[in-house]
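Q: Structure tokens for this one, please.
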Amino acid sequence: MADSKKPTRAEFTYKALIDHFPAPGGDGAHQALFKAGALGFKAKFDEQRVIDDVKANIPRPPKAGREPSDAEIEQGVKAGFAKAMAESLGLDKPGESGKVPENLRTRDVSAEVFKRIVVANAGVTAEDIAAKSPVPLDFPEWEAGWRTLDALFAPGDLLFVGPREDVTLIKPVSEWVDMMRKRPPQHPHMIPNPLSGEFAPTKADVSKMTRRGDNCVVKHMHAVAEMDKAPLAEQLAFWSWAALPVRALILSAGKSIHAWVDVDCADAAEWEREVSGVLFPKFLVPLGCDPSCRNRSRLSRMPGYTRPADSKSPGGMQRLIWLSPEGKAVCE
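A: Here is the predicted structure, written as tokens:
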């Protein structure tokens, strides 16, 4: 009978490295920090355990060498841990901005990986992410509405901004920007993909017409990703790590983050193939994102709007915490 307690190859190699950790000062200790992190992930150890193991087992340097600081040890281990995690998800080689990484297509992401991601990135705050925003968020929070529209869309793009039950509030970006320069956004929702402004059949019932449905979308720029079943702290940890190009992150003033993922599909067919067929089922949904978000005309929260308190939310500003016209990952 096989020994059920026999260590895996990763566990065996990890233990061998920890037991014979090279001394600082020219013996490969810095490379070994990275390797320990990578092996620790593959052995399914917590990142903090790997850091503690290294600190307890790294030899003292020879007289000519310098002992690495705790910060250097943590940085090296975390780099290796993050690299191995990215490889396990098929995201070790990110694709071009706006495209699903090619190697993601061949991987199946396990739901348990989400827990490892948030443990490895625990403690990240909205302020941490905002401080890295490519567009500095050094303006009053209520200005986030017009500044987001002005940064991400062309003046003539037609956008819906309104309450969920409305289908008529579709105006050019230039008009929305002029209005929001004078006062904060007056409506809670928007569709972050430009529309035709014309009526088109709904997907659910071709006998019904709408100006706000999937068939009305003319520029397929953003996929809206939301994972409101996870605590907000875990969502912050996830988006601080995820190697996906993101143009905006918005706090809903409730329990979730709305991410506008840069997909820039050429048409509806490419959206169905890349977003509905790969990005959501192979990556976002297994990691806890709402599968219903995959449609092209998905509503998102309007940044800069003050949400009133209700049974679902304590209310407050729908705060913009990331703005990147180029579509960058927070982890870059």
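A few notes: The chain has two domains: 9-88, 112-328. Residues 9-88 form one domain.
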